[in-house]
Amino acid sequence: MYPTYKCSPPLSGSTKAYLTLNSFEKNGDGGGPSECDNQYHNDNTPVVALSTGWYNNGGRCHNHIRINGNGRSVVAMVVDECDSTEGCDADHDYQPPCPNNIVDASKAVWKALGVPEDNWGGLDITWSDA
């Protein structure tokens, strides 16, 4: 069994989180279409999925967040939930549930933060509503 979460750490003006890499394209590693609009999104567009608590039952859909990491900043649009309550099925690309502190980001976000491609995958960041 994997741990599951319905809540995420409290938000502040600079909320600590862990940035992960996700594909939002059809046949990418993100599983099904995005929760916010039932669409796929180009990985060259700065989009993110937030852990269940921060996703707030879709309350952040299509809102923009500012991500700070690697000495840089980027604004990205929330299009999906990084499900902290379910996983290990086709809808979640057979991945375990997300931890409760995840900002799951497209390649465009990683590029904008200037992270070398060999280091894509996990990065301590802060984020806030933009």
From TrEMBL:
Subcellular localization: Secreted
InterPro entries assigned: Kiwellin-like, RlpA-like_sf
Keyword Magnesium assigned: no
Keywords: Secreted, Signal
Superkingdom classification of source: Eukaryota
One GO cellular component term: extracellular region
SUPFAM superfamilies: Barwin-like endoglucanases
Gene3D superfamilies: RlpA-like domain (2.40.40.10)
Family of the protein in this entry: Belongs to the kiwellin family.
PANTHER family per the UniProt record, alphabetical: RIPENING-RELATED PROTEIN 1, RIPENING-RELATED PROTEIN 2-RELATED
The protein's name in its UniProt record: RlpA-like double-psi beta-barrel domain-containing protein
Organism: Prunus dulcis (Almond)
Highest classification ranks of the organism: Eukaryota, Viridiplantae, Streptophyta, Embryophyta, Tracheophyta
